[in-house]
Specification:
The protein is an alpha+beta fold. It contains 14 helices and 49 strands. The structure holds alpha-D-glucopyranose.
Length: about 800
């Protein structure tokens, strides 16, 4: 074994250690080791995260599209100790042992729990590599974005290669995104994280090929991966957010109901949808135009026969309190000398991808022959961002980046040849040419980054809304996402739940699917109703469907179905203060809006299809949608409340008899849920009281977050934040308002407290002033004025 000294600071550390001749060295910021021609570097950007890099002959380039330079540059000191056969590096949370003969690595936490251990040292194969890790029998695996199949990845294997997967099956792979991040969870509820930062075509095999081996690797690039300590799943999610960033706070309207179709063909048709939404009192906030609004499918054009005046159309929608979202695909029509500005300006700026012989790469997509921006160059991204100027000026609110795997038609690979040439000009990377093989999986992320950055420049005080189909780890910093061209089937409705929960675990808090399904035959009335019910509890709620089939707007199956669907959309709008609060929380700590139940209850054996919205609501759809048979609903403990009836359950689970108008939802005992009066659009300011629904139980807490929902005022103090707590000793329920924080003025006149699970009368005092408390039907209601200062409300159960 030979240690090598590549960097001055580290070399000094090593020299000091060798000079001392000790088996215990002092601490080092990074540890370097070489064996058999393989160089390995170990560092810890944080005490609970270790980064391992390996290369043949040389260490790989220290560069990433997912992890910032600041994070990659951070190092906590490693305590090095040596035996004859192994070196151990320690942080306050981790210990990493390296076998000196083989470079096999074992990562454990300070309690001795092994997080990830090599079954074999890294193998370099062809131009890529393969890592084989021990897969304990009781470990389960999550993450990898919206990969299909069950929530738990164990026993499955996946290819990571962004693919236009029109009509993908429930086990279809690969699909649109590549997020090489995995959360492992054992039966004791202990978790770890693994992120392989590699953009080449890669794979993860969770014991499918070799039963006890977690096998992963890539066809190119370097070994660069992180192991995160947890120990609980939330800590892993936060570690991953530290590495790859969080989603910026969304404009609130994007959390409203969105209606889309491929395509509303002209202004009249689109306005008809807008007017019907309003006439039928379907709360909604956005309408999409798909590719047919364009002239010959050419991005950044408008078919003025169909949409004569986009700015005027935006104003009409605005009068209906709806935002407009436009698709803006990245394939620029290859249309020289036709006065098509995106082609002309892009060509003049030299921003399009090249073939190896230096000619521009041309491939067919929606507009026919098309050229593709080289998004890894700042010049190309800036140019792309400027393409939005006209639409932004017209008042368009959001943009949809589709086909960015990138999709190319008329080729069996569905994408570009692997030797198409990109140019990397990015801090951290040496300026160099790179092949499509390297850039493919990160192309969608860079497309949405260019869009996001462009919109930030064009309207600096508006939070952008960008929706992307393809992405890579870290893509949450630029765009929301959806799961692509799913099918109208019960199986796909179930699949949407595991896809969206895994996306949430993988950084994408803002995720949705095509509600009702995109391809296949249009959904049955029951299927669409169920899908809308579930969608009401998803982070992004968009009804979207393909061409050439029956419509699937909320009203299509008659008033009875519509009434059920409306109830659920209404409820989403009432819950908006809670949902928006979750979005704001996500922007700080990366915890998703829609959550796998184990994130809150690591040891709870949830049923298939169960998921949580935040930490308070547990949604428990039928396991078999079409069966009328009663089904068991396990709950994490006794004392949960039925969200719809407010009734408290004495048992840690219940039985449900399926009923089309009921999607079972349960509330955590100890929840305080903020709810607002129903509005038809989030552009409407609610009026009246803010309701605080109290569900007495342990660890009773809740909060409210408010701002203007669209600007960056909140970063300058224009927000409102307040927390609430309660405790209940059986005789007295004490409800504490924390002092309000921030300068944003609320819309409400006061708080209405609704305490659930209440029987009998009560007397109440707020800071010693007597209040009126009304008790009826299992709830106690108190109407209060606004409470800004820290205050305590004491509610005594009357004897
Ligand atoms: C792709 C998208 C789909 C869109 C269609 C037309 O198939 O996934 O959502 O409607 O292209 O733009």
């Amino acid at each position: 074994m030979a240690m090598f000294a590549g960097m001055g600071r580290i070399a000094l550390g090593l020299l000091a250690m060798l000079a001392a001749g000790a088996t215990h060295a002092e601490t080092l910021p990074r540890y370097l080791i070489e064996q058999g021609g393989v160089k390995m570097e170990i560092s810890a950007p944080r005490a609970d995260i270790v980064r391992i890099r390996e290369g043949q002959g040389a260490l790989p380039e220290d560069a990433s599209w997912a992890v910032s330079q600041t994070v990659r540059g951070a190092t906590v000191p490693l305590d090095v100790s040596d035996t004859a056969t192994a070196t151990t590096l320690r942080t306050s949370a981790l210990s990493i042992t390296i076998d000196k003969a083989t470079l096999a690595v074992t990562v454990a936490d300070t309690s001795g729990r092994v997080l990830l251990a090599d079954a074999q040292a890294a193998a370099f194969e062809n131009k890529g590599f393969r890592l084989r890790k021990v897969m304990p029998a009781d470990e389960h695996y999550f993450g990898l974005g919206d990969k299909t199949g069950p929530l738990d990845r164990r026993g499955e294997s996946f290819a990571l290669w962004n693919t236009d997967a029109y009509g993908f099956g429930t086990e279809g792979d690969p699909i649109y995104k590549s997020i090489p991040y995995v959360l492992g969870l054992n039966d004791n509820g202990q978790a770890f994280g693994l992120f392989m930062d590699n953009t080449f075509r890669s794979f993860f095999d969770f014991g499918k090929t070799e039963r006890d081996t977690l096998d992963f690797g890539a066809e190119g690039g370097s070994i660069d991966y992180y192991v995160m300590a947890g120990p609980d799943p939330k800590a892993v999610v936060e570690d991953y957010a530290y590495l790859t960033g969080t989603a910026p706070l969304t404009p609130e309207w994007a959390l409203g109901f969105q209606q889309s179709h491929y395509s509303y063909m002209n202004e009249g048709e689109a306005m008809g949808i807008a007017d019907r939404l309003r006439a039928d009192h379907i709360p909604s906030d956005a309408i999409y135009l798909d590719i047919d609004y364009q002239d010959r499918n050419r991005p950044f054009t408008v078919n003025t026969q169909a949409f004569p005046d986009m700015a005027a159309f935006v104003q009409k929608l605005k009068a209906d309190k709806l935002h407009l979202i436009l698709i803006t695909d990245l394939h620029i029509a290859d249309a020289p000398n036709q006065g098509y500005a995106p082609y002309d300006t892009g060509t003049a700026a030299g921003v399009f991808l090249k073939n190896p012989d230096g000619s521009t790469f041309v491939g067919p997509v929606w507009p026919g022959p098309a050229v593709f921006p080289d998004f890894s160059r700042p010049t190309a991204r800036d140019w792309w961002g400027q393409q939005y100027a006209g639409f932004v000026k017209d008042g368009v609110s959001g943009f949809w980046n589709d086909m960015n795997e990138p999709a190319v038609f008329e080729t069996p690979t569905k994408t570009m040849p692997l030797d198409v040439v990109h140019r990397i000009e990015e801090p951290g990377f040496a300026p160099r040419d790179a092949t499509q093989a390297e850039m493919h999986n990160v192309y969608g992320l860079l497309n949405s980054r260019a869009t996001y950055d462009g919109l930030r420049k064009l309207s600096p005080d508006q939070r952008p809304f960008v929706l992307t189909r393809a992405s890579y780890a870290g893509g949450q910093r630029y765009a929301a996402t959806w799961t692509g061209d799913n099918t109208s089937s019960w199986a796909h409705l179930s699949l949407s739940i595991s896809q969206l929960t895994n996306l949430g675990l993988s950084g994408f808090a803002y995720a949705g699917d095509d509600i009702g399904g995109f391809t296949g035959d249009a959904p049955s009335p029951e299927l669409l109703t169920r899908w809308i019910e579930v969608g009401a509890f998803n982070p992004i709620m968009r009804d979207h469907y393909a061409k050439g089939r029956d419509p699937q707007e909320v009203w299509v199956h008659g008033p009875e179905q519509e009434a059920i669907r409306r109830t659920y959309i209404d409820e989403r709008y009432r819950l908006m203060p809670y949902i928006y609060g979750l979005a704001e929380e996500n922007s700080r700590d990366g915890l998703p809006v829609m959550r796998a139940t184990f994130l809150e209850f690591p040891k709870f054996a949830a049923a298939v299809n169960q998921f949580m919205l935040g930490d308070d609501l547990l949604v428990a759809p039928p396991v078999t949608w079409e069966s009328p048979a009663a089904y068991p609903v396990p709950l994490p403990s006794a004392g949960w409340y039925d969200y719809w009836t407010g009734q408290r359950l004495d048992t840690p689970g219940t039985q449900e008899t399926p009923r089309l108008d009921r999607l079972p939802v349960f509330v955590r005992p100890g929840a305080i849920l903020p709810k607002q009066p129903l509005v038809q659009s989030l552009s409407d300011t609610p009026s009246g009281q803010l309701e605080l629904h109290v569900y007495p139980g342990p660890d009773c807490h809740g909060s409210i977050y408010l701002d203007d929902g669209e600007s960056y005022g909140y970063t300058k103090g224009q927000y409102l934040r307040q927390s609430f707590h309660c405790s209940d000793d059986g005789k007295t329920l004490t409800f504490a308002f924390d002092k309000r924080d921030g300068a944003y003025a609320p819309w409400w006149t006061g708080f209405t407290l609704v305490v659930h699970g209440w029987s009998g009368k009560a007397t109440a005092k707020m800071d010693r002033k007597t209040m009126t408390a009304q008790s009826a039907n299992g709830t106690l209601t108190l109407v209060l004025s606004d409470v800004v200062k820290a205050s305590t409300l004491v509610i005594n159960r009357a004897p």
